Amino acid sequence: MVNQVDDNAPGYELPLLLFAGFRALIDGLHAELARQGHTEARPVHGFALQAVGPDGATATEVARRLGVSKQAAGKTVDRLERLGYVERVEDRGDARRKLVRLTPRGIDLLARSAAIFDELRGEWVRVLGAGRVRDLEQALRRVVPPAAMRLDAAGWFGA
């Protein structure tokens, strides 16, 4: 059953629908990641791995990128290290600092996530049609400022 469009829908419904769509995609991602062997991966882990990035980062940089305290970032990095997604190594530029780097398992998680997101988008295309998905994406690009594309969702939610 397709929901009817209501031009007089209350304003609060839009953020709830956007969040529900986001949640559906993230839940679908993690269900498939679990089927592919990443059973302990959680949504915050994806944000944290993106914050680490391909060149690595210090725990302080991870905290800043995620918008959380250094302690919270440290706990997340500890968990990711236990799961084998990151490792701490000496920073070649400064022996006093530790650099957090993605491991092959962390890179695998990100690569699988990208492929799964492509599949999930494909499901939306099958349900809504390519034009409607493309229109939705273009419309969101028009109303969402580029600066809003950040990794600090966990910190923003108060986690």
Structure characterization notes:
Pfam families: MarR_2 (PF12802). InterPro entries: ArsR-like_HTH (IPR011991), HTH_MarR-typ (IPR000835), MarR/SlyA-like (IPR039422), WH-like_DNA-bd_sf (IPR036388), WH_DNA-bd_sf (IPR036390). This is MarR family transcriptional regulator. The protein has helices at 13-35, 43-52, 59-66, 70-82, 104-128, 130-143, 153-156; strands spanning 86-91, 94-102. The protein is 61% helix and 9% strand. 18% of the residues are buried. The protein has a single domain, classed as Winged helix-like DNA-binding domain superfamily/Winged helix DNA-binding domain (Arc Repressor Mutant, subunit A, Orthogonal Bundle), CATH 1.10.10. The mean pLDDT is 90.
Present the secondary structure layout.
Blueprint lengths: L12 H23 L7 H10 L6 H8 L3 H13 L3 E6 L2 E9 L1 H25 L1 H14 L9 H4 L3
Antiparallel strand pairs: 1-2
The gist of it:
The chain has 159 residues and is mostly helical. It is built from seven helices and two strands.
Mean pLDDT: 90
Quantity of strands, as a count: 2
Number of helical elements:
7
Percent helix range: 55-70%
The number of distinct structural domains comes to 1
Secondary-structure element series: HHHHEEHHH
- Name given to the CATH architecture: Orthogonal Bundle
